[in-house]
Amino acid sequence: MRRYLVFVTASLGLLMYTIDGTAVAVAFPSFIRDLHTDVLWAGWTMSMFSVGICMAMPLAGNLSDSFGRKKVFLVSLILFTASSLACGLAPNIHALIAFRLLQGIGGASFLPTASGMASDHFPESRQTVIGLFSSVFNVGSIIGPNLGGWIVSRYSWRYIFYINVPIGIGLMGLTMLLLKDAKIRSRPYVDVRGAVTMSGAILFLMFGLNLIGESFSAPFLLSAAVLILISLVLGKLFLSHEKNAARPILDLTLLQSRPFVAANLMNLVTGAAILALFAFIPLYATSVHGLSTLMSGIILTPRSLGTIAASATTSFLLRRWGYRWPMVWGLSIVSGATILLTPGLPLGGLRLDSAGALSFVVLIAGIGSGITTPAVNNACIELMPEKVATIVGLRGTFRIVGQALGISLITFILHLSLNPVTGFRITFIAFGLLLLSSLPLVFLMPSGKGERIQTAA
Fold it and tell me: For domain 1-188, which CATH number applies: 3.90.1750.10, 1.10.3210.10, 1.20.1250.20, 2.40.30.170?
C-alpha cells in the first residue's frame, strides 16, 4: 500500500508543477495591468520558469541518484512552495520574473525524482508507472488554464501562486511520512565545477534563444549571438572538465553511444515539433481561422484528452509492444495530423475552418503524442537503468531546449512571412516532415524487449 501512496505523492507534485506552469499563461493581461508592464516583460515570466527548469533538471537527477529521493524531493518542495508564495507577493514584474526562475529550479527535480521513486518502488512495472506520469502532465494541462482563468476572474492572479502553498505543505508532510531514507547509491558528492559550467551553458543558451524569439531587431540578434557563443564556450569547458572528473554529472561514455545520441536527438525533435508547435495552435486558430480567443484555447482540450487516454493505454502495453513500434506509430500519426493542419491544403472537400474540425485533427495529434511519449521516456531510461533520475533529468533538458529552438524557429518563420496563412503553411509542412525524417532514429534506440544497451568503455 505504501508504494501506491508514494506514487500518488509523486503524481501530485508533478500535477502541482504542471498546473502552475500552464495557469500562468492566462494571467498575462493581469500582469500587464496590475504590475504596469508590457507584453515583452510579462512573457519573461514564462521564459524564466523554463530557464530554471532547464538549468536545474540534469543536476537534480544526479543529486537524486546520489543523495536519495527523499532529501531531494523534500528540498525541491520547500523551494517550489516558498518561491510560489514569493511570486504571489511580488511587488513588481522584475521580482516576479526572479521568483519564477526560483520556482523553475524548485520544480525541476519533480520529474527525475518521481521517476526514480517509480523505479525504486515498482521495479517490476517501471515502464508502466513512468508512462503514466505522461497522463499526469496532460491532466495538469487541462486543469491549469481552466483553473487559472477561474481564479484570475474571481479573485486575483496572485492566488494562482498562493494555491501552491497549502498543497506544497501537504506534500511535504506526505514525503516525510511515506518516503524512507533510502540507501544512498553512491557516496554523496556534488561536482561543483561541472554543475556551474553546465548550468551556465544552459542558462546562456536559453537566454539567447528567448531573445531570438522576442525580436529580430539587430540589437536583439547581436545580443543573442553573444549569449549563444558564451554558452558554447561554457559547454566546451564542461565537457573538458567531465573527462577528468572523478564523479562526473554526465557519464561521457554515453556520448560514445549511438542510442544515447539518437534518444536525445529524438527529444530535441519532439520538444520542437510537438511541444513548441502546438503552443502556437491558439494563435493559428485566431489569426488564420478567425476563432475567438476563448475557443482557440478550448480546441486544445481534445489534444490533452487524447494524449491522456493513449499514454495510459500505451503504458500498460509497453512490455508487450516494446518501445520502437509505438514511437513509429505515434510519430507518424502526429506528423500526419500536423500536415493536415496546413492552411489551404487540398483535403477532398474537407474544410478545417471550424472549431469542430480543428479539434478533431488536434485530438488525432494528441493520440499520436500519447502513443509516442511513454515509449520515448522509457527508451531513454534503458540507456542507464541504474541512474534513472540522472537520465530523466538529461532527457527533460534536451526536450526543453528543443522546445525553445522550435519556438524561436516558428517565430522567425512567422515574422518573415507575408501573412499568417503563409507562415503557418510553411511551419506545419516543415515540422510534419521533420517528425517523419526522425523515424530512423527510433531504430537506433533500445527496443524494450530485453535488450541491454552497451555504452562504449
Answer: 1.20.1250.20
